[in-house]
Amino acid sequence: MLAASLAGCANKGAHLLVGAETVSATAAEIAGEHRLFVATTRQRSAEPREVFDGERSLTLSFAVTDVTVPAIHKVGALERPKNSTRDPARYFTATGVGGYEDEAAFEAGLAKTIAARGGRALVFIHGFNTRFDEAVYRLTQIVHDAGYDGAPVLFTWASRGRTVDYVYDRDSATTARDGLERTLRLVRRAGAQRIDIIAHSMGNWLTLEALRQLAISGDRDIGGKLGDVVLASPDVDVDVFKSQMKRYGKPDKPFFVLLSQNDRALNLSGLIAGNRPRLGEYADADDIASYGVVVVNVTDVEAGDRLNHTKFADNPVLVKLIGDRLRAGDTFVQRRTDLAGNIENLAKGLGQTAVSAASIVITTPAEVLSTVGVE
To answer: Is residue 111 packed enough to be buried (19+ CB in 10 Å), middle (13-18) or exposed (0-12)?
Structure first.
């Protein structure tokens, strides 16, 4: 209730993707600019600067947005605007937003970028309590910090961005299943030779359902183009996950489940769900790994948010580690000792003395060992 009250007092201009005015910045004050392709089941907002709001649309809409990252940006941080004024030297700033007449036009635009980026695409699906601008900024931060050089695609569903709308958001995620399935097929048609997926929180429920639908249709690996699937802090009932994976089958390429027993958001979600454990806080890693997924326990890794719910993106070592994985594709590491050394090097390079290989516990099923090369 307190969080909802504070949210209601926040400057509404801060949640508009496009500011009322933008302060000029020099090239030296900008660390990078990223073009994001957007597919959404959100309704177009009556406020043009918001672009898309939190209400549902039963049809997919498509857009593209360019976002700059300030030179003062720190890996793992998300420097968001505080009001309606956009200062690219201090905050993530959307410098341009465009729409597409139809799916064909979106596909053509995406195809050009995919071709120029080595045939790779990354689809990100956000979680609960996420406004449109927040989803845009988060994907930008992940792509920038991870050093991802493929085409970023944001699939954003109709979250109202309010803590009191948990059930509404859950129903919105369910409503968006067909839209995500359609988007993944569209990315393949646009020429992607490898499609990696990162889902967060409630977005994992939506992602697993879409993948389950693809499996039922006989196309579970998106025509052989599906790469890694990173399930970060999944807000999914453990039994539901097991039933979804039984229908999907053991993945041909790794699914990575990032979980943390001190994820306070999932602790609360589990209470709401009848004191049922969520996948992202589940303690039995061997049980989950038996379904063919790699379990990455990051309980002992520090987080940037007080709920410990966004470690995958706001912990500098983890987001860099994910970036290494995405860049390397199917040739990530040869042995667990190599992975440990990589974690240590990243931590030292970023000045993260609190992060060590021992604080990241990986449980890998025997069926996947030959795929990822981890002993």
So the answer is: middle
Residue range 348-367: mean pLDDT, rounded:
75
Residue 6's pLDDT band, with cuts at 50, 70 and 90, is very low
338 contacts: CB under 8 Å, gap ≥ 6: none
Using an 8 Å Cβ cutoff, are 32 and 150 in contact?
Answer: no
Q: Which two tokens stand for residue 348?
A: 């030292």
Q: Are 37 and 122 in contact (CB under 8 A)?
A: no
- Chain-centroid distance, C-alpha 238: 20
* C-alpha of 371 from chain center: 23
User: Across-strand partners of 69?
Assistant: 32
Largest CA distance in the chain: 55
Q: Average pLDDT for residues 231-257, to the nearest whole number?
A: 96
Taking the model in full, what pTM does it have? 0.92
b/e burial code for range 80-110 (CB count within 10 A of at least 16 → b): ebeebebbbbbbbbbeebeebeebeebbebb
- Which residues share a beta bridge with 296? 258, 362
Cα–Cα distance for residue pair 201/125, rounded to 1 Å: 9
Where are the alpha helices (H) located in the chain, listed in sequence order?
A: 2-9, 103-116, 132-146, 166-175, 177-189, 203-216, 238-248, 264-272, 285-289, 311-314, 316-328, 336-350, 366-372
